[in-house]
What does this fold into?
Amino acid sequence: MLDVSVSYNRYKFLGYEYLTWLWFVVETEQDKITNLEEGPVSIEIGNRIVLENKKKDAMETITIKGDDAGLEEGMLALRKGAVVAEINLLLKANDQQWRFTIKAESLHFVGFKAPPTGPVKSEEDLEGAVLEKAYLYDRAMQCMDRLYKQFITLRVSQDWPNKVVPLVRQWMHS
Amino acid sequence: MGLLSSKVSITRYRVEGRLKAPILATVAGCLKENVIPQIDGDVSDKTVGWTSFDRPFAPNFEGSSFVIGTYFVFSLRIDKRIIPSKVLKKHCAIEAAKRLADSGRPYLTREEKNLILDHVRNVLTLRIPATPYLYDLIWRYEDASLWFFSTQKSANEDLETLFLRSFRLSLIRLFPYTSADLMMGLSDQQRDLLPKLSATNFSE
It folds into this structure.
């Protein structure tokens, strides 16, 4: 395996491409998301997207935030060559919902809010709460892992340049 | 940020290697050996160690106290003494004025100023109590995975160093490349393609 710091820096574009593809999938291919678990799953774009556009030595950052913010500026930035650097998502499954931001460079989960769990009043409650929280975090992360697996499988195939990238470009200009 | 907080941040790791049996006793022993030491009373400005998730200021790793379900749950504690720069500057100025008055000279040499800075820092370090910072973690031993409830760079670096020193096991941070290479179940042929990838230009 490559040195960790080398692979972090050299291939961080994979994270930016993943989040850009994810936005495309959320907007156009919900069927890829619906079957992530046994019950139906949906993902919506949340209240924040950060895009970055590297131009020679300069970096342009576009941040769109707010619950009802329009994403037109983001689409425009994509057309100009930007990619998604972080995205806030709302994941829904079986009447429960998770909200979190994924960072492209590191795949960190930030501001991760799982469905509410019961109050902790005793030591037994504490153990139960930890197990419940761990289960809830795991469910959301597994969904995102399945999506990342779909992305990376496409990314190393010829379908990426031949099919996926043209579709993403078509969506950006639609 | 605690794992039971309403909002958390998570860095994910893969744990490389296995512990020697009996696992529980090995983990307990490693945690006890690297428990957070008390720094009140000495001049260390930072100490790092393990503490209990449920009793962060009275760590106890006896028996299976760190086991919840099939997980190992404990916390990284970093105690730091941070002297505000303005306080340091003030006490250095007071000490410098005192030395000048005692010696009757009009100035202090660079070496004398450095000695004053070291002296003042040591004195203040003893007087200022350490501030504890707590970061919870869940280690899923069977899955060789670990969730660390912080995305702070320095806390993650301290975790990686202490984990290796304590358990003789490496933590591999899961970011786009390592996730793809190690966690996604790609075939050998697909994994061979990963290092050959280059960035896509979506806007062409």
Q: What stands out?
A: DSSP finds six helices and seven strands in chain B. Helices of chain B lie at 23-33, 85-103, 110-127, 153-167, 176-183, 188-193.
